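Figure 6 in text form: structure in, sequence out.
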């Protein structure tokens, strides 16, 4: 029997990392899961490929958000490899990239890649790709944490899962795309699917186990309730009230800007304020 693949998490300094991606190393090859956001972090991930010293065979994307695809150019570094995702993920990334450029360039400057690379190889729900005996199977979730999400399962036993952002490891969460109802439904579908000993490698922190589903559900429900309960006759006070409530639920500033960016879009989606023109 072939030995278990090794999973390398990037950035290698886990503490305070904004976003994670992974290299899965088998006997003779490497498969990447996501690509981080910044030029420097994705370049360091590429250096990880070089130091392992095996060929990169493919990149698999867990969802359509830029902190998971923005580093593709540095990661693949000119290698002619498939970058694989469901068609919906590919379409969302290519559709929204101009908008992400407008948002991320002022935030990240030159650390947001000027020359971006997009996924190029679609895959259908439940289909697998196998590299050097390691089989990866995609779940095409549709809208969830992002407009289109696609966790990947490694191996036939379905014990190792790259969940993307379906669970955040006790960090503040992004809900600004407005799909929290689908996200909550997907949490139950995924909770039912995987065994108690499943290991979830996620986009922000982790790894976590199935016990984390309840926390994630609680976070989303608390956020939506706080937005609903706020007094939107004063949008500024409403925003501050929701942020304060979420910091009571989770007393940390980690990724708090993602939560703060989500308050007004969710209020608009719930019909509490006028949708932006
Ligand atoms: Zn993310």
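Output sequence:
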């Amino acid at each position: 029997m072939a030995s278990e693949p090794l999973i390398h998490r990037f950035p290698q300094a886990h503490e305070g990392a904004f976003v994670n991606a992974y290299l899965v190393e088998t006997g003779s090859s490497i498969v990447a899961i996501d690509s981080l956001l910044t030029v420097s972090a994705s370049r360091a991930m590429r250096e990880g490929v070089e130091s392992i010293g095996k060929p990169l065979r493919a990149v698999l994307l867990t969802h359509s958000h830029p902190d998971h695809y923005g580093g593709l150019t540095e990661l693949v570094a000119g290698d002619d490899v498939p970058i694989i995702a469901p068609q919906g993920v590919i379409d969302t990334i290519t559709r929204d990239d101009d908008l992400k450029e407008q948002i991320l360039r002022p935030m990240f400057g030159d650390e947001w890649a000027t020359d971006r690379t997009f996924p190029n190889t679609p895959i259908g729900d439940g289909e697998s790709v196998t590299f050097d005996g390691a089989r990866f199977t995609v779940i095409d979730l549709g809208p969830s944490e992002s407009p289109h999400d696609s966790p990947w399962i490694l191996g036939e036993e379905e014990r190792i899962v790259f969940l993307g952002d379906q669970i955040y490891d006790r960090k503040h969460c992004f809900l600004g795309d407005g799909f929290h109802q689908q996200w909550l439904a997907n949490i139950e579908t995924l909770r039912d699917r995987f065994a108690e000993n499943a290991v979830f490698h996620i986009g922000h922190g982790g790894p976590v186990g199935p016990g984390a589903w309840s926390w994630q559900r609680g976070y989303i429900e608390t956020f939506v309730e706080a937005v609903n309960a706020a007094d939107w006759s004063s949008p500024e006070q409403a925003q501050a009230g929701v942020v304060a409530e979420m910091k009571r639920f989770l007393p940390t500033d980690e990724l708090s800007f993602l939560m703060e960016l989500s308050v007004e879009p969710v209020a608009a989606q719930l019909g509490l304020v006028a949708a932006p023109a």
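Caption detail: The chain has a mean pLDDT of 96.
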